[in-house]
Amino acid sequence: MTDYRKRLGHLQANMDERNLDLVVLGASPDFQYITGAKVDWRSGRDLNYAADSVFVPRIGEPIVLGGLGNGGKVKDCWIEDARALGTLENMKPTVKAIMSEFDSPKKIGFGEYTYGSLVLAIASNIPGAKYQSVEGILDKQRMIKDSTEITKLRNVAYLTEKVMGKVIDELDEGISMHELTSKIRHLGRLEGATDISFPPTGGFCKSGSEPIGVFNYEPDQPLRPGTAIAFDIGFVYDGYCSDWGRSFYLGEPPEHIEKAYPSLMSAVVETTDVMGSEVQYTDEIYGSIEKICDREGYGDKLRARIGSGMVGHQIGVEVHEDPWLRPQQRQELVDGMVFCVEPKLWHMGEYYLRVEDMILIKNGRAESLTTYDRELFQL
């Protein structure tokens, strides 16, 4: 069971360190994390309400506010003082009443998803207060998942691989990238996903083609033999995200492509195996992957060499959470972290290959929450 009181305590401790009297979070990942209210913040902003928010004082109890249609959702959460708007016009007097509950806060922090109209409604009632962004104020707490969160991440990982198993089993010549991604979305919904965590990719790269970029098919161009197929897929289930990747080849792959994929897979699996021993920090993951790809003869095709060395990220309420897995960001690997390792091999005009697994740190070692067939490549 989620300990929301503990989460509130962490936030209020952070507020004390920053000398913040009040924090206001609009409907957002942090709002979900603190309240547990099932208010949809992922959809288009024009479908959400400026009033959806939680007011957290440095000392004392929070107040949660629901916009039109979300009153029942906020009243179902753990916070006792839950208020709701019946119309769109009455936000200002409701905010005024809420602000009267607090002792003239002098320093107020706003989350990055908070609507400007809500900020102005608050400011009109607290003349002379100072304001600042509190973007990232809960990142450190959200980095370590509790047992309930880990269960939810296991479940969304399982759902994702179940969907992709069906997609891959039915993947035939003639399908287009557009049709493929539409199918992925549809099957995800049928399995219970409430959303996608990012637009799905099922990208085609025809071997021996003109080197024009990562994928060299038009969106509606039919799949033909001699093509590498790279998947990057994520769903949302019970408020938590997945992020998954595998690659395949339609037809008989040339030797240099046939060997590339197991080399990439080895880099992920072997790196996962040494997390907690040889690899103890986030900034060491890229080096381990690069070393294995070099050993296998594919280091120069490692796409991370081109740019920042980014080979993954944390995952949870959001699909991309801190810390990112790159040489510039050092964070010890500790129990409760769940992140995605996602290196890619890219040979322009020949292939774009990716493997992505969701990894849990547990008892000082790494466990892969995604286990889809690591041997399957040729379709």
3D structure, described in words:
By secondary structure, the protein is α+β, with helices and mostly antiparallel strands. It folds into two domains: 4-141, Creatinase/prolidase N-terminal domain (Creatine Amidinohydrolase, Chain A, domain 1); 144-368, Alpha-Beta Complex (Creatine Amidinohydrolase), CATH 3.90.230.10. It contains eleven helices and 19 strands. It has helices at residues 4-18, 29-35, 71-75, 91-99, 116-123, 139-143, 147-169, 177-190, 255-258, 260-273, 285-295, and strands at residues 22-26, 53-57, 63-66, 81-84, 107-110, 130-133, 195-196, 201-206, 227-233, 235-237, 240-241, 244-250, 312-314, 321-324, 338-341, 344-347, 351-354, 357-362, 365-368. Strands 4-3-2-1-5-6 form a six-stranded mixed β-sheet. A five-stranded antiparallel β-sheet has the order 14-13-15-18-19, with helices on both faces. Helix 7 packs across helix 8 (177-190) and helix 10 (260-273) packs across helix 11. The protein is elongated, with a radius of gyration of 23 Å. The mean pLDDT is 95.
**What would CATH call the architecture of the largest domain?**
Alpha-Beta Complex
| Named CATH topology of the largest domain | Creatine Amidinohydrolase
The total count of helices amounts to 11
Helix-strand topology string: HEHEEHEHEHEHHHEEEEEEHHHEEEEEEE
Query: Strands across the major sheet, in which order?
Result: 4-3-2-1-5-6
Largest sheet: 6 strands, mixed
Query: What's the CATH first level of the largest domain?
Result: Alpha Beta
Q: Which strand-content bin applies to the residues? A: 15-25%
Question: How many domains make up the coordinates?
Answer: 2
Mean pLDDT: 95
Terminal-residue CA separation: 43 Å
Proportion of residues in helical segments: 25-40%
Radius of gyration: 23 Å
Question: What's the count of strands?
Answer: 19
Low-confidence stretches: none
What is the overall shape? elongated
CATH superfamily of the largest domain: Creatinase/methionine aminopeptidase superfamily
Structural classification: alpha+beta
